[in-house]
Amino acid sequence: MDLDWTRLGKALRDARRAAAVSLTQEEMAEEIGVGRSVIQLIEAGNEYKKPTPSIRAYATRVGWAEGSVEAVLAGGEPTFKEIAAPAPETGPPVDAGLPLRIVHELKGKGDLLDTAVIPLGDDASMVVVVKGKPGASLAEIERSLEAWRKAQGQLLEIDYRDEPDPS
Q: What CDD domains does the record point to (predicted)?
């Protein structure tokens, strides 16, 4: 069976660049303890006999579950580890199983200003978390909340039901 190293390299690069991880090649290299050239070789799809410890460390850092490297090499998709977000300073713990991007944002600096659940028809809903910038003044928080109230009103007005094709 042929292993698609180019596909693996692209998938890892895309995961590194995703908002949840958002690292440069240099930062990734430093975090997993290799040189930038190793990251470049992995992302370029350099062929190996089998996945290396560096590839596995890279996959772990971008949140892939065990077995994802092999799945991608074989033409499948990675699966992601369930990651528990840390408890907010003044609230209950956040449940595990959130996407890494959300966990990253919740861990980030800035005050939690509001949350909302927006219905998307009968089949789904959208959860919105609104955070302010770190160290915001009371006036800045008030402006942020006012902007959120306007955006929330617009989101609630959208009809998310399937509409007939106008043609």
A: HTH_XRE
